[in-house]
Amino acid sequence: MAGFSTALTSLGKAAADATTAIKDKVTHANMLAEFNKEQDTFIKSKGERRPVGSQIPARSSKKSTKKKLISKFVIGD
Asked: What range does the domain containing 35 cover?
């Protein structure tokens, strides 16, 4: 009878551990889904914007590139 009790206790512990693991995964999945939803909303609210680098011509000189970058950060776009 003692062996049955030990086996039942082990089974109960394994079930509890599995339940905890499943709850953790579901919680993390929900948090990730919520984060992705908020991130999409944020991106949509900001509109379509191109990265600063895509606005600078590829063949500009170092000096003019520096000037354009500084004006983007100081003046804004």
From this structure: 2-74
